[in-house]
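Teaching note: in complex prediction, the entire set of molecules is handled at once rather than each chain in isolation. The prompt given to students was simply: 'Predict the structure of this complex.' The entities are:
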Amino acid sequence: MTSGMTLPSDQDSSGRTFGPEELEAVRECLNSGTLTSTRGNFVKQLETEFARTLGAGHAWACSSGTAAVHCAVAALSLEPGDEVITTGITDMGAITPILYQGAIPVFADVDPYSFNVTARTIRDRLSDRTRAIIVTHLFGNPCDMPEIMKLADSRGIPVIEDCAQAFLASAGDRCVGTIGRIGCFSLQQGKHITTGEGGLVVTNDDALARRMYLFINKAWGYGDARPDHYFLALNYRISELQGAVAVAQLNRLEQVVASRIRLAAALTAELSSVPGISVPAVTPGTVHTFWKYCLRVDDHVIPGGTVALGAALKDFGILSAPRYIQKPAFCCQIIREQCTFGTSRWPFTLARPEAVDYRRELFEGTWDALEHVLVLPWNEKYTDTHINYLADSIRTAVATLTERPAAARH
Ligand SMILES: *Cc1c(COP(=O)(O)O)cnc(C)c1O
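The expected output is the structure of the full assembly:
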């Protein structure tokens, strides 16, 4: 059986909004004849307005979420072989910048229910070479920042927040991205708002802001009395065309987030009593902004677990992602086989053996999380009809999977 409803998708106009505002901004940009952000005003406007939206001192646009993480790591001026704690459940673009800066990604385990790193799992991986911690607010759900900041501050270790999936998520009275030293965002096609590709970094630290600005600009000191290329850096700028679209998209962000939160609450209300699945756990005092809506599937109740449920939902035309990224990042070839620069394996050659120990028993939470998570496609353009359809499909799929043959019922 294949049937049902086509859900709005973030891959095309069904689930993305590019209206007259974006079009007008792009037209104005083209008419100006200035497409570089070193001369134009759209990217500057984006940076000013994004900083204000988050309540951050500085924001810079850059070419991707990967570039944003690269700027953040580069701003810390790490020494080769320094260790950066991260998570095994994230986008590879959050990890490779660590290696490009000559540092070693050290994976902390995650909590199998929130899918996030915690103060406890980070503490387990700290060493005298730890120079930074990158926390990922996975799926839009904030990490336990009070505990993580307490730990990091007590050791004087800077925290980078990867907020690519967590625009406007908050913990206490602060937006994620402004709690640690640097926040990183992505404007890639599937994120809350988009310019196709793009990224943003934010910080309240003037010196880090300066380093990140330089890193985006080949470390050329624009405007300095005696400018030079001060250090190793790339061109990570976005164009004014992207800036124009981003300014218009940013005006939509609050509504996008409000809609995703409202829809998530509606689905949670529908699903809370379905056996074998757990709805997302939102920590009191935090705001989860639902980049995706994830279920945890209990394979003791639902035979075949998340994979079976994902397959059953496909019959309803619902394209979920059982197991999310399938395997932890440290099982990908780049890290497993240390495929870096030529055949050198650098910087892994500088690593402590414990830092590159990826044995399964060290990552029970990570494997548990991936083995049970079902990522539902999520979009701000869903209507109540879509939510009811999702809920009905999930209830029906669970009922079918848990139905025992008649003979076994006694
Ligand atoms: C999307 C994403 C990135 C990378 O962003 P790109 O714009 O695709 O380079 C990094 N981290 C997380 C958590 C992401 O979801």
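Point out the following to students. The mean pLDDT is 96. The first helix runs from residue 20 to 32.
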